[in-house]
Specification:
Layout: H1 2-23, E1 30-35, E2 38-54, E3 57-60, E4 66-71, E5 78-79, E6 84-88, H2 91-126, H3 132-165, E7 167-169, E8 174-176, E9 186-187, E10 198-201, E11 206-213, H4 214-226, E12 238-242, E13 251-258, E14 268-275, E15 287-302, E16 307-310, E17 313-319, E18 325-336, E19 339-344, E20 352-355, E21 368-372
Parallel strand pairs: 1-21
Antiparallel strand pairs: 1-20, 2-11, 2-15, 3-10, 4-6, 4-9, 5-8, 6-7, 8-10, 11-14, 12-13, 12-15, 13-14, 15-19, 16-17, 17-18, 18-19
Helix pairs in contact: 2-3
C-alpha cells in the first residue's frame, strides 16, 4: 500500500514538474533510469539446425537362402544383440550337415585303411618282397586320404555354419523396424541383392548432425590456433540441444566428429555431436536446434526490455551528456544470465535507458531527467 502511494506521489510530482515546465514555455522533462551495460566475460554459443541420427544402423539380410519359417519379434520393439529375430526352414541345412558328417566318416575310414596298408608294406620292403615304388604309392595314397578328411571337415563346418545362419539374430542392440518379409516367403541370402528383412537402429547414445558455414569454420580454426578454444576435431567441446517444442537447451552432449572436407554444393562442413538418450525421447530423423560452445568473450549485456525494434533494426536509447535521448543501433547476440548480449553498437560508458522507455513521449532528442540504476544478471533457476 505504501509502495503504491509512493509511486502515485512520484507520478504526481513528475506531472507537476512537466506542467510547471510547460507553463514556463520549456519542453517537459521526463524521468528515466539509466545504467551502463553490464561488462562480463561469458561463454558464447553458436546455434545451428540439424537432425538426429542413429549411431549405428543395420539392415538385416539373410546369409543363406531359404523359406521364412518363423518371425520371432514384435515390430518396433527394442531388441538386444543376439536375439533371435527370424528362423528359416532348417531341414535342408540339417540334411546338408548330416551328409557332410557322413563324408567325414568315409574319409576317415579311407585314412585308416591307407595307414594299415602302409604299415603292412613296411616289412615287405625290408625283405625285398615289395618294391620301393609300390611302398611310395601306398604312402601317397595315405596322404591323399588325409587331405580328403581335411576337405570333408571343411565341408562339415560350412554346412554347420549355414545351419547356424538359418537363425537370423540381432547383430546390435537397438529398436527394430517392421518386418519386410512374411512367414512362407523365400529369401535370397549371401548376395548383393539379398532380401531385406528388417532394419535396426541404435537409440542410446544418439548422434546429432548439422552443417556449419565456411566463416564459422574459419573462426573456430583461428580460435584453435590462438589457444582460446580447442578444435572439435581433437576436443569434446560441449553442446546443448533444444527440440521444437522446448524453450530451454536441456539436452547436453559433446562434439565427436568434424568432417574432413566441405560440401562443394552447399559450401558447408558437417559436424556431429553425441548425446545420452536413456529415456529414448530423441529419435533418429527428428530436427532440432543445437548450440555449440564457441569460446569465452568479453561482452556487454543489457535487459531485453531496453531494446526497441525499428523496422528491420534494433535500437537502444542512450542518454548523452546534455540529457537528450539518442537512438543507438545495435547488433544483438545470445541471451546470457537473463540479459541480451550486444555484439556491436554500445560502449561500456554509454548510459542505457533501462526504465521509462515505455513512455510514448520519449523519442530521440527528448530531454529527460536521468536517474542512475544498475543492470544485474538474472539469477538462474533450476531447469525442469
Amino acid at each position: 500500500m505504501m509502495a503504491a502511494l509512493a509511486a502515485f506521489v512520484a507520478v504526481g510530482f513528475a506531472g507537476a514538474a512537466c506542467e510547471e515546465a510547460s507553463a514556463q514555455g520549456a519542453p517537459p522533462v521526463f524521468p528515466v533510469t539509466v545504467a551502463p551495460p553490464l561488462a562480463k566475460r561469458i561463454p558464447t554459443w553458436d546455434e545451428y539446425s540439424g537432425r538426429f541420427e542413429a549411431v549405428a544402423r543395420v539392415e538385416l539380410r539373410p546369409r543363406v537362402s531359404g523359406y521364412v519359417d518363423q518371425v520371432n519379434f514384435k515390430e518396433g520393439s527394442p531388441v538386444k544383440q543376439g536375439d533371435l529375430l527370424f528362423t528359416l526352414d532348417k531341414r535342408p541345412f540339417q540334411i546338408a550337415v548330416a551328409a557332410a558328417e557322413a563324408e567325414v566318416a568315409r574319409a576317415k575310414a579311407q585314412v585308416d585303411f591307407a595307414k594299415a596298408d602302409l604299415e603292412r608294406a613296411g616289412p615287405l620292403v625290408e625283405s625285398k618282397a615289395l618294391s620301393e615304388q609300390v611302398y611310395e604309392q601306398r604312402k601317397s595314397t595315405l596322404g591323399v586320404a588325409e587331405a580328403q578328411v581335411m576337405a570333408a571337415d571343411a565341408q562339415l563346418r560350412s554346412a554347420q555354419l549355414n545351419l547356424e545362419w538359418a537363425e537370423v539374430r540381432a547383430p546390435i542392440s537397438g529398436r527394430i523396424s517392421d518386418k519386410k518379409i512374411d512367414v512362407g516367403n523365400l529369401v535370397i541370402g549371401g548376395q548383393v541383392n539379398s532380401t531385406l528383412m528388417a532394419t535396426i537402429v541404435t537409440i542410446d547414445p544418439i548422434h546429432f548432425v548439422f552443417d556449419a558455414s565456411e566463416a564459422d569454420y574459419m573462426r573456430y580454426a583461428r580460435l584453435s590456433q590462438s589457444g582460446v578454444r580447442p578444435s572439435s576435431r581433437v576436443a569434446a567441446n560441449p553442446v546443448r540441444v533444444k527440440l521444437a517444442d522446448e524453450d530451454d537447451w536441456i539436452h547436453p552432449g559433446v562434439m565427436d566428429f568434424v568432417d574432413n572436407a566441405f560440401n562443394e554444393r552447399s559450401g558447408t562442413l558437417r559436424g556431429r555431436a553425441i548425446l545420452d538418450n536413456k529415456d529414448e525421447l530423441l529419435t533418429p530423423g527428428i530436427f532440432a536446434r543445437i548450440a555449440l560452445f564457441g569460446g569465452d568473450i568479453d561482452a556487454l549485456l543489457i535487459p531485453d526490455a531496453a531494446i526497441i525494434s525499428d523496422q528491420a533494426h534494433k535500437i537502444v536509447y542512450t542518454v548523452g551528456a546534455d540529457n537528450l535521448i539518442v537512438a543507438t543501433p545495435v547488433t544483438l547476440g545470445q541471451m546470457s544470465d537473463g540479459l541480451r548480449v550486444i555484439k556491436s553498437g554500445l560502449k561500456p560508458t554509454d548510459r542505457v535507458v533501462i526504465e521509462g522507455i515505455a513512455n510514448p513521449a520519449i523519442r530521440p532528442g527528448t530531454k529527460v531527467a536521468p536517474t542512475d540504476g544498475v543492470i544485474k544478471a538474472v539469477e538462474k533457476t533450476a531447469q525442469k
